Amino acid sequence: MPARALSVSVLTLVRHREEHLRNLMRGLARQTVAPLELVIAWMQPEPVPDLPDPGCPVRHLHVPGEPMPLAAARNRAAEAAQGERLIFLDVDCIPGPGLVAAYAGAEAEALLLGEVLYLPEGAVGPRLDCEALDRAGRVHPAKPPIPETGLRPEPEARELWGLSFALPASAYRSVGGMDEGFSGYGGEETDFAVRLAASGLPTFWIAGARAYHQHHPVHVPPLPHFESILRNATRFHARHGTWCMEYWLGQFRDAGLIAWDAQATSIRRLRAPDPAEIAAARQPGTRLFS
C-alpha cells in the first residue's frame, strides 16, 4: 500500500435502474475504505427519492439528451468529481466490500480494471450477503482471470468494459474525457481506452476490486441498439482504422441486417430489424451474459 491512499470519487450513471442503484449504494456503505463521494449522473428528468445512505456525501447531476448520453454523462460526472482517482461503477454493479480500498490503494498511475461477477436473477436479497453473491456469481467467459494479489499488466486497453474501472482524474481530463460524438449505446468506452493507451497510460488488472453485476434482461443480438451500434462503430473505424463491437456486428450480419466483415472499410446497412425480431432477441431470465 502507498503511504497515502488516494482520495477517490465513485461515479455512476442512472436511467430507470433505481433498485439496482439502491443496491450499489448499500454496497458502498459496507466498504472497508469509504470513498470521498458518490457522484450520480441522472440520464432522466428527476432523481428518485428514498435512496439509502452510501456512507459518503452524494452529488446529483442531471444530464439531458436522447438517446442515452453515456459519454456526456460520464464527462459531467468526472468534471464534478473532487477525488484524485475516479472509480466508474455501472449502476447495475454492487461493489464488494474491498473495491474502493483496492482501487484507492493501487500504486500504479494507470487504467485499472476490476473483477466483475455476473449474478443470476433473484440472487440479490433484501440483505446484501457478499459470501452468497460470491457463490452465485460467474465470471464472464470472455474475460481473463484476475490476479490473486496486486496488479497484472494488460497489453490490450480495449479490454476496458464500462462496468468497473478506475483511473487518475488527471488522466481522464488530459485526453478530453469520452468523445460525446458517440451517441447512444456502444463504442465510447473502447475509443476512450484506445486514446488513453496512446497517451502512454498503461492498463492493469487489479486484485481485490470485485463487483457483482445485477441481473437484467438482455437482447441477443442487441437489436434495440442497432442504429447506434452501426453509427458508433463507423465513427470508431473512421478514427482508428479498426472496428469495435465486432461480435455484435457479426451477429447483425448473420441476421441479414448488414453486409460487413472485419476487413471492410464500411458497413452496408441492408435493413432494420422488425419488431418481431427485436422481441424474439429478448433473452429469458436465466441468461447471464449478452
What would your notes on this structure say?
With 290 residues, the chain is an alpha/beta fold. It contains 9 helices and 14 strands. The protein has helices at residues 18-29, 70-80, 99-105, 130-136, 169-174, 188-198, 226-240, 246-254, 275-281, and strands spanning 8-14, 37-42, 58-62, 85-89, 93-95, 111-113, 116-118, 138-139, 151-153, 164-168, 203-206, 211-213, 258-259, 268-269. Strands 3-2-1-4-10-6-11-9 form an 8-stranded mixed β-sheet, sandwiched between helices. A 4-stranded mixed β-sheet has the order 5-12-7-8. A two-stranded antiparallel ribbon has the order 13-14. The longest helix is centred in the C-terminal third of the chain and has 15 residues, at 226-240.
Q: Class by helix and strand content?
A: alpha/beta
Rg over CA atoms: 19 Å
Largest beta-sheet details: 8 strands, mixed
Please tell me the overall pLDDT.
Answer: 93
Rough shape?
Answer: globular
Task: Give, in spatial order, the strands making up the sheet with the most strands.
Answer: 3-2-1-4-10-6-11-9
Distance between the termini: 36 Å
- The number of E-state strands comes to 14
Share in helix: 25-40%
Strand content range: 15-25%
H/E series: EHEEHEEHEEHEEEHHEEHHEEH
Number of helical runs?
9
- Poorly predicted runs are none
